[in-house]
Specification:
By secondary structure, the chain is of the alpha+beta class. Helices cover about 10% and strands about 25% of the residues. The protein binds zinc ion.
Length: about 70
């Protein structure tokens, strides 16, 4: 059984779960197009968020996050 969800935006990769180390906040990103889904968003719906904008708006870097096992 797999819980993998193909990216609704580009369809080129699986969404990957990540967590912000300092806050424990979870989010999902697509490694291919860098679309981003926050914890409360439906992963099967298109998103308007992008990883780079999210990191900038929250003041963290990619190194402040960790990949979660899926
Ligand atoms: Zn994508």
């Amino acid at each position: 059984m797999s819980s993998k969800i193909a990216c609704p935006h580009c369809g080129q990769d699986w969404l990957a779960a990540h967590r912000i180390k300092s806050t424990g906040e979870m989010f999902h990103t697509c490694p291919e197009c860098e679309s981003l889904w926050l914890a409360q968003q439906d992963l099967r719906q298109e998103t308007e968020n992008y990883l780079s904008e999210f990191l900038e708006s929250t003041g963290i870097t990619w190194g402040d996050t960790e990949k979660l096992a899926t």
